[in-house]
Amino acid sequence: MGHEKAARLACGATDDFAFNIADGAVHPRDQVTTICDILGIDAHRLTKRVLGVDLKPFGVEPGKVIKTILA
Hints:
Elements: E1 13-14, E2 21-23, H1 28-38, E3 48-50, E4 53-55, H2 67-70
Antiparallel strand pairs: 1-2, 3-4
């Protein structure tokens, strides 16, 4: 019953101060699409009608599933 090391997932890198993206930038809409894919939800069909407008969780442009996180 010791402390086990948890598996760490890193997708990209930042500078030394964790302020700027150094490698592997991912857009938030791609993160939302990937989370929906993991949960088994088709993010492109998921809409919410607000004031007569169908809104999607990732905005107007479609998101892409991030394959490096799923691998």
